[in-house]
Amino acid sequence: MRSDDALELARPRLLRQATAYGIPLDAVDDVVQETLIEAWSHVDGLRSPERFEAWLSGICRNVCLRWSTGHKRALQRHTQGLGQWLVDPVQHDEPYGEELVDEQASDPVDVVISQDLRCLVARMLDQLPHEYRVAVELYYLAELPQRATALRLGLSVSALETRLHRARRQLRDLLAREFRDDALAFGFAPEACSDLNWHAARIPCRQCGHYQLSGTFETLPDGGINLRTRCPGCEAERETRGLIPLHGVRSVKPALKRVEHWILQHLTPQLQHGWHTCPWCGLCAPMLTVMPIEQALAGDLLLSLHCPGCDREASTWAWKCLHRHPEIQHFMLTHPQWISRSAQPVQFNELSAWCLRLDDRKSRERLLLYVHAQTLAVLATVHE
């Protein structure tokens, strides 16, 4: 099939793609036409015909993003911004493939460098899971507002932040491994391309019970400290995202102790009232809600904090709020190989509740806890 015919046959699919990227109906035809023109002018550079559809979709994606951002990016902002992208919203066009150069660059050397950088970012984005890549494209590249991005993806703002944070983490890992040489060749700081410094926490994973946790500290853009822990076996990951003050703590185990103490001291008492002083602005009273945690953190409950004043959101582990309950403490002390199981929503005495479960891997004993869906007040315990 001739390339002209193939491009024209792709028009309906490109119209759907542009609409999905939020291009208004009165502009979508122009965006698709620009996509076809750019594709036609560079089709000779397509070295792998079997990649035609992916190549064309990449061009359409880039045109959509360029339309959304007003054609305002150039090479210098690319090279200065990629490292910041890994910790904050980027200031980049979405790359769409190795065959297309940046026609805005006037210096031929800059054209080559820009093309190579676009290829690097495109290859990195291709390594992300689909849901992460779409979130990155809409929020960072198209610069949609956070709430608009969350609405389009059918997520809460907190879930979107979690997804974007994990996407940035995966991109950092890619820079540290598969794309390290490429990143260093572009002059990115070595620390942006280095692997994270994971330390053994000497604490068993309470998700699977087979491995010990490792942890690392990350400095956030606002100066806060994010504690990350992970299990090498079940790959369960946790992070504090700057919610809990951890300045001055150098080891993972003491940091986890501080996290537990902070939750018990600051959050647990406020669950009964449904409000908490905002940890960032100190003036607002965000509501606390308990909800199932998504994907990788399944098995826990997520305590979500939203401040309507400074519009900040964060989350932490609701399970920590229960550690001082006498029966829970007794079970943990007498069953050192305890693990937690997935929380299940239930009705208890006509109240919305969660059924939490602790299992002992050695004796097969277990403790069931029925807790109020919002306040986490323990309604009943059953030792089996």
From TrEMBL:
GO biological process, one term: response to stress
Alphabetical list of Gene3D superfamilies matching this protein: 1.10.1740.10, Winged helix-like DNA-binding domain superfamily/Winged helix DNA-binding domain
Keyword Iron-sulfur appears in the UniProt entry: no
Keyword Transport part of the UniProt annotation: no
Entries under SUPFAM superfamilies matching the protein: Sigma2 domain of RNA polymerase sigma factors, Sigma3 and sigma4 domains of RNA polymerase sigma factors
Residues annotated as domain RNA polymerase sigma-70 region: 11-73
Protein name: RNA polymerase sigma factor
Species name: Dictyobacter alpinus
